[in-house]
Amino acid sequence: MAAGKAKYTTGDYIRSALSMPFFFLLLLLATPVILFLLIISFGKLSNFVVEKIAPLLAKPTLAVLGISFRIEKHVDEITSPAVFIINHSSTLDMLTLLAMGLPRVRFVAKWQFQYNPLFLLLGRLTGQVFIRREQSEKAIKTLQRVVSRIQKDKLSLMMAPEGSRKHEGVIGPFKKGPFRMAMELGYPIVPIYFEGNRELSSGKFLVTNKGTCTAHIHPPIDTSNWTPESMDQQIAEVRKHYLDWAGVEH
């Protein structure tokens, strides 16, 4: 069901105000270690950074916010490589994405993240993908350029089909980009549903209630038989799952 606007206490505002300086302090302290690992390994420890170090930054920050983060797998083994997709409607998503520590994953993030010099430096060195979401043609060309690297290194991609967290409804319209990438790469789609993120923090800034967030990792969806002609219907079917998980009638 669609959640109402969250009501915050004084304690919520205090924890939220402390969380981002705390996160960036951890990031600042970790940056020399990350750079050292990447330099001595000639970049080969990028996966270690994403899988092991990133959760060490995100999980303590979630704890400062008063949030208990859980991962619930609805499948025996996480499929990799794959195109992972999430429902995106909260500032909390950035932290819960990092906290998962998914195997060999690279994040497709908005171009503006690079305005932060630490994000720019670490993002580029670890092979994250920055796109201009407001310019769809440029975004598609950027994704097409990374296909060969992703395939060669057997990396996964993390994408948000809604594009932005600012959308109408609990689950916004799905764009075609993630699904085109899955077809081009020959990868399955792995849906991840964030439960609790939107309910705890639905505003523009990272102000959040205390509570629990759960990342539900669902079974992979085979895209090998998808065609350009059937893609709209296939995307609609995937979106229906998210509507069901969110408790939205359709």
Give an account of the 3D structure.
By secondary structure, the protein is α/β, with parallel strands linked by helices. The chain has one domain: Glycerol-3-phosphate (1)-acyltransferase (3-Layer(aba) Sandwich), CATH 3.40.1130. It has eight helices and seven strands, in the order H-H-E-E-H-E-H-E-H-E-H-E-H-E-H. It has helices spanning 10-40, 46-64, 93-100, 117-125, 136-152, 177-185, 197-200, 231-246, and strands at residues 67-73, 83-86, 105-110, 129-131, 156-159, 189-195, 211-217. The radius of gyration is 18 Å and the shape is globular.
Strand content: 15-25%
Reported by name, the CATH topology is: Glycerol-3-phosphate (1)-acyltransferase
Mean pLDDT: 89
Class derived from helix and strand content = alpha/beta
Number of helices: 8
**From the coordinates shown, what is the CATH architecture?**
3-Layer(aba) Sandwich
- Which spans of ≥5 residues are poorly predicted at pLDDT below 50? none
Helix content: 40-55%
The level-1 CATH class: Alpha Beta
Give the tally of β-strands.
7
SSE succession: HHEEHEHEHEHEHEH
| Largest sheet strand order | 1-7-6-2-5-3-4
Total of domains? 1
Shape by Cα distribution: globular
Q: Specify the biggest β-sheet.
A: 7 strands, mixed
Keywords:
45% helix; Glycerol-3-phosphate (1)-acyltransferase; alpha/beta; seven-stranded mixed beta sheet
Provide a compact summary of the structure.
The chain has helices at residues 10-40, 46-64, 93-100, 117-125, 136-152, 177-185, 197-200, 231-246, and strands at 67-73, 83-86, 105-110, 129-131, 156-159, 189-195, 211-217. It is an alpha/beta fold and 250 residues long.
